Amino acid sequence: MSATHPKKRAADIGGDKAGAVDTADHGMKFWERQANALRTALRRNGLMSVDELRRAAEDLGDRYAKLEYFERTTFALRTVLLEKGYFTEESLAAKMAEVRKRFDVPRKKELPVKKKVKR
Amino acid sequence: MSKHVHDYYAKKKHDHDHDHDVHEAIEDRDEGPPSEFEIMSRAMQELLEEKGVVTAEQVRRSMEKFEEELPYRGARVVAHAWTDPEFKKRLLADGKAAVSEFGIDLEAERLIAVANTTDVHNVIVCTLCSCYPRTLLGMPPTWYKSDNYRSRVVYEPRAVLKEFGTVLPERVTVRVHDSNADMRYVVIPMRPQGTEGWSEERLAELLTRDTLVGVTVPKVEVGSRKSKGGSKTR
Amino acid sequence: MNPATGKQDGQRLPSTYTAAPGHRFDVGDRVVVKRSNPPGHRRTPHYIRGKTGVIERICGAFPNPEELAYGFDGEPKKVLYRVRFRQKEVWPAYRGPAHDVIEMEIFEHWLEPAQSQKT
Q: Are B150 and B175 contained in the same domain?
């Protein structure tokens, strides 16, 4: 493969070697159910398409394999909503700080989001 | 057109109407400190609510629907197909039309029903993400969304089915469906022996979610009045 | 409704299928999936590219997800087919019987007629 040949999209995993399936259904946490409902409501309200969310999840690249399902989908939603200008990285970070305080969680040193250089 | 009007809103857990504001069964949060992704998700929701593009009520209603209504539809439709051969034909010909006739709105989803026979066993996957007939079956199980299932069931379906306890003879064709575009799939399992004369409600109990995705087959437990089919958890 | 012709027969129930006017392939046609690796969002899994199968059903015409993924309207719609493949022709090391199959939905612009006429 040449250097310019694009890698498989991160989500295109059919056929990959993988381990045994954990056949138990571990259900969903409350926040995951709420996140799923949020996505459903947003799509119904016409904010974005499921295709945009899938693309944004695939664009996670190497991070895709390292994240769990609802982590991927949450990050993908963030990407698409930022693209469409529903909030900025700054306003999201500020709101997250507010939410974090409400839960009384000490601020973690390592954030999942790398701060982008301001243009 | 079917003359049946099925009370598919009949809840397994609750009987009351859901127009009230506070629902005691849904907790506000999980135990333990929230992850960064939970915080992110909650923060996004609040920002969007502030912008007026979604309401908390819409989100709550959607949660309720996924919890209390959607998971019960599929079994009812397929149990009806077991008892009504003409409905089964219509379901196989056009899944969305047949389900609509039954009184269920699949909204934007397009359904293809595939029937198991003595010669063919169907199993569903979405290798690219987690496409699933949510308006018919509710949310997919964790194994369906797992990388291991998505990767392997397409090239070694028989080995994966074995992990669910399902062993198929070599003479049966395994037919894998990768729901990679606009269609969504449900499996119509074979109706087990020993269920003659059963009501649709009793038949629906055999049709666990795993049987409708095709990783297990419905089983009648000998001697038990209310038989549970397949295995949802192992 | 006849999925092949897209004709509604007067019923007002919503249908799984939509019309596919001018569709290039018919049920039973042998087709080969393009062996192509364009970057970006695609709904043709890598493992099926370059493989030969048979048109199992015409689903209709749908907005192109490759465009929807980037916020465009996906018009003009593309015809979507279900294509059936023999597992042994998809995976060189497939261990199951020769009659096992895999089926999926492939958009018309990813398909070419197969050269061979063998069934």
A: yes
Domains parsed from chain C with CATH numbers: 30-113 (2.30.30.50)
- Is C69's pLDDT higher than 90? yes
Find out if CATH 1.10.472.20 is the number for domain A31-102: yes
Shortest Cα–Cα distance, A86 to chain B (Å): 7
Model's pTM, two decimal places? 0.87
Query: B183 and B101 share a domain?
Result: yes
Tally of domains in chain B = 2
Question: Percentage of residues in chain B with pLDDT exceeding 90?
Answer: 79
Inform me whether the pLDDT recorded for B227 exceeds 50.
no
Among B98, B106, B134, residue whose Cα is nearest residue B4:
B98
Chain C positions with Cβ closer than 8 Å to B:
1, 11, 13-17, 43-45, 47, 59, 62, 65, 80, 82, 87, 90-91, 94-97, 99-107
Query: How far apart (Å, rounded) are the C-alpha atoms in residues C41 and C32?
Result: 20
CA distance B109 to B192: 29
Q: How far apart are CA C72 and CA C64, in angstroms?
A: 9
The tokens of B25 are what?
Answer: 């069964």
State whether B101 and B53 are in the same domain: no
Q: Going by C-beta distance under 8 Å and a sequence separation of 6 or more, which residues neighbour residue A17?
A: B151
- How long a stretch of residues is chain A? 119
Number of H helices, E strands in chain A: 4, 0
**Looking at the domain assignment, is residue B10 inside a domain?**
no
**A49 touching chain B per CB within 8 A:** no
pLDDT in tens, B135-188: 999 999 999 999 999 999 999 999 999 999 999 999 999 999 999 999 999 999
Spell out which residues of chain A touch residue B66, defining contact as CB-CB under 8 Å. Answer: 33, 36-37, 40
Q: Is B126 a catalytic residue?
A: yes
Q: Could you tell me if B193 and B107 lie in one domain?
A: yes
Provide, as residue numbers in chain C, all residues whose Cβ is less than 8 Å from the Cβ of B186: none
